[in-house]
């Protein structure tokens, strides 16, 4: 049987509360949610933007609540909250 590694302080620091994650997966974004999803996945702004196929400028606007993601972008954020490994994998294959 493979040992399951313990969570580190870093893992806990980037974790999403269950209620927040469920709200994001429903597409109900609030202030700070986009940055929380990115930290939860463990990517830089540049990596996260690349994985979603958007510009870093757009991502910063979302994270700073100057703009709100809509349509396909919102769907991608919902998928990112539900399947963070897929987003990380997309960064690796895109690089």
How many strands? 0
Count of runs of 4 or more consecutive helical residues: 7
CATH architecture: Orthogonal Bundle
Strand content: under 5%
Main attributes of the structure:
single chain; 95 residues; mainly alpha; 434 Repressor (Amino-terminal Domain); 0% strand; globular
How is this structure best described in words?
The protein is mainly α. The protein has one domain (15-94): Orthogonal Bundle (434 Repressor (Amino-terminal Domain)), CATH 1.10.260. The protein has seven helices and no strands. Helix 4 (45-52) packs across helix 7 (84-94). The relative contact order is 0.16.
In short, what is this structure?
With 95 residues, the protein is mainly α. It has helices spanning 9-14, 18-25, 33-41, 45-52, 56-63, 71-82, 84-94. Helix 4 packs across helix 7 and helix 6 packs across helix 7 (84-94).
């Amino acid at each position: 049987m493979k040992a399951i590694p313990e969570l580190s302080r870093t893992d806990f620091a980037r974790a999403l509360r269950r209620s927040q994650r469920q709200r994001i997966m429903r597409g109900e974004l609030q202030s700070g949610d986009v940055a929380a999803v990115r930290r939860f996945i463990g990517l830089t702004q540049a990596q996260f933007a690349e994985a979603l196929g958007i510009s870093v400028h757009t991502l910063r606007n979302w994270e700073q609540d100057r703009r709100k993601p809509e349509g396909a972008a919102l769907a991608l954020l919902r998928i990112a909250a539900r399947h963070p490994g897929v987003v990380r994998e997309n960064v690796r294959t895109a690089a």
